Amino acid sequence: MPQLRLTGRGLWITVLIAPPLAFVALFIVYPIVAAFAYAFYDWQGLMRGDFVGLANFHQVLFVEPYASWTRNAFTHNIIVFFALMVLQNGVGFILAYALWRELPGARFHRVAVFLPVVLSTIIVGYLWKLFLHPLFGVVNQSLKAVGLPFLAQPWLGQDTTALWALIFANAWHMVGFPTLVFLAGMQRIPGEILDAVRMETESEWVKITKIVWPLVAPSATVVFVLLFVGAFNWFELPYIMAGLDGSPYGSTDVLGLYFYRTAFGNVSAGQQNFGLGSALAVLIFVFIAAVASVITVRLRAREIQI
Amino acid sequence: MSKTIIRMGAALGAVLITMPALSQELTFWSWRQEDRAQYEEFIGAFEAANPGITVNLETFEAANYNTILSTALAGGTGPDLMMVRAYGGLENVASAGYLMPLDTQKVPALADFAPTALAAETMRSDETIYAVPFASQTQLVIYNKTVFDDLGLEEPQTWDELVALSQAIQEAGIMPFANGTATAWQNETIVGGLTSSIIGKDFYEALKAGEADFSDPRYVEALTKLKEISAFFPEGFIGLDYPSAQQLFGSGLAAMFVGGSYELATFKTMNPEIEMGVFAAPGLAAEDEKLVALYYDGGYAANANTQHPEAALAFLNYVASLEFGQAFANTLNNVSTVPGVTFDDPLLQEISELNASSIPYMMLVDFRYGEPSGSVLLQGEVQKLMAGQTTPEAAGAAVTEGLKAWYEPFQD
């Protein structure tokens, strides 16, 4: 039976592994476990009360008004995920393809597409708030200038446009990221394969669907999973552009804002409930972890080794 | 300016160095980052009068202050002295037992404070005061005096006069109101600032007595008039956020701003040239009492577990004193709650007089003790009303219905 003796090599391994393990345990495992534990207690303000089992989970899922708030926020996260899948990852793929084909000005565009990704979300949020300003915003001004004044809208004030304005701003900000990942994937496709295709067909469509798309599957896995996690943890942009309440009247509310409001209160609610907040956090975490694992396994299965 | 700060810093440093070894050091947390220099001065005056006590001020961003304070108190690292919110926000902290209970023995000056001011810092369950209230805020109409004078307009005495003068301002090519409703809490502010006189004292008393709810004709009438007057708000105002609205008024592009008395200082900073006036929005008839909506902002509290309870109490007694109240009013341009304070600034003097005829900012004062809060409900319903998605009747009914979840008088 092998024994880990605390001399020589064994000692070295122990000494080197212990600090990072302690670090991970203290700063990652402990907070997560603590948040899990919080969710099972009743809270009076900040004071931990009795153990209440699953009551907090029951309340956020099935008791009004929490149940409809949860549903509302969750629905918006789903909309955000699918919309960004098209507007961010879909457009990213097309941009990557265009850059890869080295259309004129590709070098300039490669920088231009990636530039917004470097900006912090705070800046992007404020920038788009200015762009969408109902009176002086560049969006409404341009629409009026080109003779389409009826299209000028109070974008962030209507339930029909507010969420889409945020989604659009997010896509503008982050589209460079999937572009870059897809581009890297495309550049790894061996030249021989492309030469072989060229003998068969001149059609770009066939080339994209039969060769490029299957061969960038590993890139797709990465951007899909990251988008999923990002879409369900979405917080900064709605917080900056719509505020904690998901203004107007909850039409931009997402799970991140809802969790924050519930756990820490906001200026207009005055109520703080760590128990319900933690229950929401646990539910969000479990949902993301479960679905992200399934997506990862599924998408991995379709990747082809070259 | 910076020289005074350096001098003050030097003075503070000198005080710190010469401090006896037994000195009592207190930490004091505040969310008023913009008032830091003034608070350092107040603290300097306190320290001069109380040798041996040092107060270290730390300021935090207002929006996250509640979270930071709650977390610190829960973790046992909270400050000795702190600014706390009022009403429901106070109860979050007080109910966990983190605050030192106060009474007129510990802080004798509290005996003369207005009962409504003390109520703001009292927890309902044990009827105990936990903080010395510092300022009242008033929701009313702020106007640009220069624009009014140029157009020959006077403060309106009836609602129809308000509509007529808005019309006149619009015809002169100036935006009548600066307000936008994209920022949720602004929706409540315009209800308090524009419609308090229409809502009326009777309604508030009936509401408190459990005889009326928000589907009452008086409240619905107020929402109806609010919707009508919003025709004079800026184009696309439902997408206009709070800072943009402030800029419209501060820059003189708009003639009126419905908001809290705290805006006056902001506008002065934005545009030192601006000449402002205030009025309580009128009721439907000239003989209706003109009301503003009044509330208290917050208070100064001590930590129940402080190492230096006497020193902390000495500080609370200082902030309850007329000397402090007067300095607070003069340097911070806020309506101090300390009784007997007079105001250099004529506008503040006028506001403190307008406060005599007021109803409370009721969603804050009475309806923030459960989920969903009256504030969140009213904000959402007013936003819908402004976007044409609901009617005043339906909005009033929806607020009542939502509050039924926890507000017992509505539950039968």
From TrEMBL, chain A:
Instruction: Please list the residue ranges annotated as the ABC transmembrane type-1 domain.
Output: 74-295
Q: Which UniProt keywords apply?
A: Cell membrane, Membrane, Transmembrane, Transmembrane helix, Transport
Q: Note the coiled coil stretches, chain numbering.
A: none
Subcellular location, in the record's words? Cell membrane
Q: Which GO terms describe its cellular component?
A: plasma membrane
Q: Give the signal peptide range.
A: none
Membrane topology classification? Multi-pass membrane protein
One Gene Ontology biological process: transmembrane transport
Check the record and name the InterPro entries matching this protein: MetI-like, MetI-like_sf, UgpAE/MalFG_permease
Q: Which domain of life is it from?
A: Bacteria
User: Keyword Transport: yes or no?
Assistant: yes
Tell me if Transmembrane helix is a UniProt keyword of this record: yes
Mark the transmembrane ranges: 12-41, 78-99, 111-128, 162-184, 211-235, 274-297
Q: Which family is annotated?
A: Belongs to the binding-protein-dependent transport system permease family.
What is the recorded name of this protein?
A: Sugar ABC transporter permease
Organism encoding this protein: Devosia geojensis
Automatic annotation (TrEMBL), chain B:
Claim: Secreted is one of the keywords in the record: no
Keyword Signal found: no
What InterPro entries is this protein classified in? Bact_solute-bd_prot1, SBP
Q: Where is this protein chiefly located?
A: periplasm
Localization per Swiss-Prot or TrEMBL? Periplasm
Q: Which organism is it from?
A: Devosia geojensis
Q: Which UniProt keywords apply?
A: Periplasm
Q: Could you say which protein family the record assigns here?
A: Belongs to the bacterial solute-binding protein 1 family.
Protein name (record): Sugar ABC transporter substrate-binding protein
Which lineage do the record's taxonomy fields give for this organism?
A: Bacteria, Pseudomonadati, Pseudomonadota, Alphaproteobacteria, Hyphomicrobiales
Name any GO cellular component annotation: periplasmic space
Lineage top rank: taxon: Bacteria
